[in-house]
Amino acid sequence: MQRRTLLTLGLVSGTALAVAGAGAAVWTPGWREGRLSQPARVLFASVARAVLEGVLPQDPAVQAVALKGHLDRLDTLIAGLQPATRAELSDLLALLCTAPGRWALAGLGPAWSEAPMADVQSALQAMRVSGSAVRRQVYQALRDLSNGAWFADAGSWELLGYPGPFRL
């Protein structure tokens, strides 16, 4: 090995460790104390706006209330998952809430709260059709959790034409 190669390798390794250390310092779990962390709530609110377009109320004030209820149902849904699944989901959400993770997995540059809905929808579509199984699984997890929490509310059943469970 040449001296120049060794110095370059040392510099690149040191930079990678510094970036990883800084990332670990700002790492916030996606799930803690029985509920989604604030960054994860912002992520799921953005995903809900993109996935549930046309279903969410159009009035911004009513939509904000509906999204709060949606995020509360997500807390309940995630609390019912197995602990190992919850831990994996927490790690995934934490990764998606960092700029490098958001860019690597979703291909989204701006923060979830700042990204236009069209950009979030494009990022989700790119994950859905990605050649990477991991990116497709991330898309499916975000979509399924969001849809599951939204359509678990009896108030959304009317939109589907579902009269509700049969009463005995």
TrEMBL record:
This is Twin-arginine translocation pathway signal protein. Keywords: Signal. Residues 1-18 form the signal peptide. It comes from the Bacteria.
